[in-house]
Amino acid sequence: MRGPVIGVLALQGDVREHLAALTGVGVDARPVRRPAELDAVDGLVIPGGESTTMSKLVDIFGLREPVDKRIAAGMPVYGSCAGMIMLAAEVLDGRPDQRGFAGIGMTVRRNAFGRQVDSFEAPVRVAGVDGPAFHAVFIRAPWVERVDPGVEVLGRVTGGPAVDRVVAVRQGNLLATSFHPELTGDLRLHRYFADLVAAAR
């Protein structure tokens, strides 16, 4: 039996870095730009980038309805940073015309940690992932202000002015983080997601 095939939404953002991280954990990783490419994958990563631009490109490339349908059917999806925003049911401080996939019952605040110059790094422990705290990189990142029942909080900021803010969540087969594990060489979250995809198959 073949291993899982995981796509990376390749419209904008940290596409190459996620593809490399997934390949590093032994996954068949492929860019996804068209509905036919989405049909060929078992799971999907929505990368960091610019969520308003990503929202527009999802419509231009005809991917909104196909991704919505796959999420409703149980396809595992992992969103990092802008990907977290794209998976949120509610976005604060977003553009009025901004639309995501609304897969996770949570409210996120876009650019909650400030502008690009306010980007920072902090240790974050993620429940269910063995080993030391992640060296988490936050770049114009969101944080989670509220979660519905059934959404599991996996990680919080452990220090600094944003201490205790929620930055990692899971709801069923949907996973999201405010930070960028693809930028640090720490492959544990990608392995965690690959295991989730394999179990869902």
UniProtKB/TrEMBL annotation:
Instruction: State where L-glutamine binds.
Output: G49, E50, S51, R110, I139, R140
**An example Gene Ontology cellular component term from the record?**
cytosol
**What's the catalysed reaction?**
L-glutamine + H2O = L-glutamate + NH4(+); aldehydo-D-ribose 5-phosphate + D-glyceraldehyde 3-phosphate + L-glutamine = pyridoxal 5'-phosphate + L-glutamate + phosphate + 3 H2O + H(+)
The record's Pfam families line, in alphabetical order, gives: SNO
Which EC numbers characterise this protein's activity in its record?
4.3.3.6, 3.5.1.2
Record's family?
Belongs to the glutaminase PdxT/SNO family.
Q: Which SUPFAM superfamilies match?
A: Class I glutamine amidotransferase-like
Q: Which GO terms describe its biological process?
A: L-glutamine catabolic process; pyridoxal phosphate biosynthetic process; pyridoxine metabolic process
Q: Which UniProt keywords apply?
A: Glutamine amidotransferase, Hydrolase, Lyase, Pyridoxal phosphate
Lyase is among the record's keywords:
yes
Q: Which pathway does the protein contribute to?
A: Cofactor biosynthesis; pyridoxal 5'-phosphate biosynthesis
Per the entry, what this protein does is:
Catalyzes the hydrolysis of glutamine to glutamate and ammonia as part of the biosynthesis of pyridoxal 5'-phosphate. The resulting ammonia molecule is channeled to the active site of PdxS.
Please give the name of this protein: Pyridoxal 5'-phosphate synthase subunit PdxT
Q: How does it assemble?
A: In the presence of PdxS, forms a dodecamer of heterodimers. Only shows activity in the heterodimer.
Catalytic residue positions: C81, H180, E182
* Domain of life where this protein originates: Bacteria
Listed GO MF terms? glutaminase activity; pyridoxal 5'-phosphate synthase (glutamine hydrolysing) activity
CDD domains in alphabetical order: GATase1_PB
Q: Which organism is it from?
A: Micromonospora wenchangensis
